[in-house]
Structures are given as structure tokens and as C-alpha cells.
Amino acid sequence: MIRTMRSRSTLRSTTRAAALGALVIALAAGCGDTSGDDGSPADGDSDPSVSDGGEATGDDASGGDGSAGGDTSEAVGASDAGGADGAPSDGGTAGDGAGDDAAAGGAPLPESADLATEQLPVPVEDAVAIALETAGGGETVSVSIDHDDDRDWVWEIEVALDGREHEIDIDAATGEVLQHEEDDDRVDEPAVDVTSPMTPAEAIDLALQKHDGRVSSWDLDSDDGTIRYQIDLERSGGDDTEIEVDVETGEVRVED
């Protein structure tokens, strides 16, 4: 009887010890879990949008409208792509502007300009085209360029059309037709061409091989049926020299 009571007492002690051990283990496990009932992360991260791998997820990783976020290398703002009005940010302009420049011409050359080295805003080919358009067609029979005290540099071009003579003055800076006169005098002179067989630049080069000086003016026309350039040189000594260049033969003659 006594032995049986001791066995029961021992069993109760063992059972209590086991229960106590289970309670200690449960408490230890509970302290290690920091996740609360509100679903806060158990790994110590304060931002629920960041996973264990460190990548942003959810709304923080995308725009408010569901667009992809995070990587900004492909998303270029309006200020990077251009100005507020859509103009390119590389210094260019949205429009071409070339037409305005062509219509406006350029700044006129000073009176002291050397036509051997400086280019007029309206080149001779353009001036001839303007003259022919103004006359309504025809053939060019003379071309000259000179400085006018009142009108700066002026192209003076003579066009023959249907037995009539058209004398046309053109502003060499703007291309504006300054004067257009017609008369009934029949023009028997041959047509001239500033592009063939000799250009003004080629004639000026030949003239400068004879004499140095500033080219102050030139003209292209014919004399007794011979087409020639007449080039006016202003020399350092103050003397003016006139040189003729035959467009067919290239012969150069200095006028005394």
C-alpha cells in the first residue's frame, strides 16, 4: 500500500515537471516571434513593401496608376526631352528658319570690301535668276557689280527679251529689285553666262596675276562681239587699274 502511494506521487511529480517544461518552451517560442496580430513583419523590417530580398514591391515600386516604377533610366521627363513647348533641348529649333534667312539675305559688305576675297550676300547666280524672273524671261547680255553711295552694293543686269531691253538693279544684300526699266531698243549683243566658259572668280584670279590690288567692281558684257570681263583694281598706290579678260581665250589685257 505504501509502495503504491509512492508510485502515484512520483508520477504526479513527473507529470508536473513535463508540463512545466512544455510551458517554458512555449514561452521561449512566443518571445522569439515578433509578428503581431496586425500582420507586421517578423524579420524586423519596418516597411511591409520591402521583402527579405531587399526589393521594393507594391505601390512604392510602381506609380500610383500602376505604371512601373523604381527604374528611372527609361523614364525621361519633359525637361530632359526638350523645353516646355516641345522644342529640342540641344540648342536647335523646332522650325527650320532657312527660308527666312534666304529671304532676308545678309548684312551688306562695307564699301572697302575686296570682291576677290569677300562674298556678297546675294551671289551673282541668284541675282541673274532674279533679273530673268523680273523681266519674264529672255537672255542676259550684261552683268555688273559696283558700290553705290546711296544704295550700297548693287547688281546691274541687262536682259534682252522680244526686242526689248530690260535694265534691272538688284540689292546685293537683300535681293530686292531696286529698279526695272524697259525700252524698245533692239539688243544685238550676244548673251553672257556667269557660269561658263569662265566664272567671275576665275577671271579675277587671272587679273590678279597681272597686278595686285583690291577688286572694287567688275562687269561681264561684250565688245565688238567678244565677251569679256572688265575688272577694276584699286592699287596700294592709289591708282586704279582696269583689266580685261577674254572668256574664250583667257587672254588678259591691262587698260592704260
From TrEMBL:
Keyword field: Signal
Protein name per UniProt: PepSY domain-containing protein
Regions of compositional bias (Acidic residues) in chain numbering: 239-249
Secretion signal, residue range per the UniProt entry: 1-28
Keyword Signal listed: yes
Domain PepSY: 122-178, 198-252
Biased composition (Low complexity): 30-54, 70-91
Residue numbers spanned by region Disordered: 30-121, 235-256
